[in-house]
Amino acid sequence: MSFDTENSQHWEKLRKGEKQALFALYNNTYSHLLRFGLRICANDELVKDCITQLFLQLWNKHPQLNPVANVTAYLFTALKRQLIDQLILQEKIHSAIHNLAEESFGQELSYEEIIIQGQQDEEQKLRLQKAMKALTPRQIELIRLKFFEGLSYEQIAQQTSQTVKTAYNTIYDAIKMLRKQLK
What we know:
Arc Repressor Mutant, subunit A; 183 residues; mainly alpha
């Protein structure tokens, strides 16, 4: 059986909701996707995150998935889009931080502007605190390890005695919950 035929069979089973087909497709294509992703972006953590996120999205949307003629090409294209979206988002964040730093150093704010900015920061903090209360203690712990201590998923899994996949899924669910709460 050829690689593409096998992936097509897994795709069809995935569309029907067979979780094992998702894992089989993931295992079949992971190394290919990783190599492909690293040609687009040299950040291996970002590439690994995007691959995992891609498969989580496939599972979450499996009832709406359409038949695909070339599953491998579809996954490459989806990964490429995901990586580009993440790189654009990172660039926007970097640019915003840079602009904010330049504004802070480049000009003095008026008293009113300082008060307004302080109020906006306080409102944002309160919204974030409220959103964090919707998370489980485990989700809060993993968010802290990933985003405040800067640990990789492998380090988080090792530190919390979980699998990498469980750590990723927990953080993914927490982020999804935070986005929903902050909208």
